[in-house]
Amino acid sequence: MKIFHNSKDLKIFIEEQKNKNLSIGFAPTMGALHQGHLSLYEKARKENDVVIGSIFVNPTQFNNTEDLKKYPRTPKKDIDLLKQSQFVDVVYLPEIQDIYPKKVISKNYNFHGLENQMEGKFRPGHFNGVGTVVEVLFRQICPDRAYFGEKDFQQFLIIQKLVEILNLPIEIIQCPILREENGLAMSSRNQRLSPTARKNAQIIYQSLTKAKDLFKNKKTSLEIKTEIKLFFEKNPLFELEYFTIADEEKLEEVSDFKNDIQYRAFIAVFTENVRLVDTIQL
Ligand code: AMP
Question: What is the pTM of this model?
Answer without folding.
Answer: 0.96
